[in-house]
Amino acid sequence: MTRVINAIQEVVSTPLSFDFPSKKVQEICLAAYDINKAKGELPIVNSITEHRWDLMELYGPYKFKVILMASERLEEVDGAMVAKGNKTTQEIYSTAKRAALRLKNDYGMPLDHIFIDMSVSAIIADTEGLNRSTVEAIRLIGADPELKGVHMMGGLSNIGQQLPPKAADGSDLKHCLENAFLTLNVPHGFDYVLGTPWRGYEPLAEDHHVLTTYRNFLEQTGSNALRAVRKFYRA
Asked: pTM higher than 0.90, yes or no?
């Protein structure tokens, strides 16, 4: 990793993100990173969760920004703290707020150094309203004055996994679905993506087939959600 980081920083000035759960590997990456070759920009540690907080022990010897996962929380079960997946709007929002404020208050990390990963999920089998929970949580985080300055992000390519390439209107279904998600969420503070740079993301018109179908899908659960998914690609 040291050799790779050194080689990359010889030819680009873009800040780097280190995606490892291992504290030892993260420390090696942070030690190799040359902030001067990144125009003074800090690296990003990807990622921390409430049950993987040991990476923050590196914050002091090193300074960095973090990707904070809102998809998992710690919960006490029979006297022990265990990791639980978040599914509801309140679980996602509460976890994000609790962890972000912990970073701010306990470590002095500026809120604009925190990137909350909202875990965009595939719609193909989303019968539990996970997409809806994510969209609603984005709105709560974006409207919370205590979280003003945090960034929100997610992996856009997840949302269209296993769907056909074309929508019922002939458009690029997966790309338009990514744009539909952004159209709804960018106004509420979703400002970074894990995406393909040359995809040309842009807002969709209000009457665009994929956007209107996605709005309808977000209102459904169970088998109705599966039927709503078919409307994307079946006329």
From this structure: yes
pLDDT at 234 over 90: yes
pLDDT at 10: 98
Q: Do 137 and 120 contact (CB within 8 A), yes or no?
A: no
Read off the tokens for 226.
Answer: 């599966």
Q: What percent of the chain has pLDDT above 70?
A: 100
Report the alpha-carbon distance of residue 56 to residue 66 in Å, rounded: 9
| Residue located via tokens 């088998």 | 223
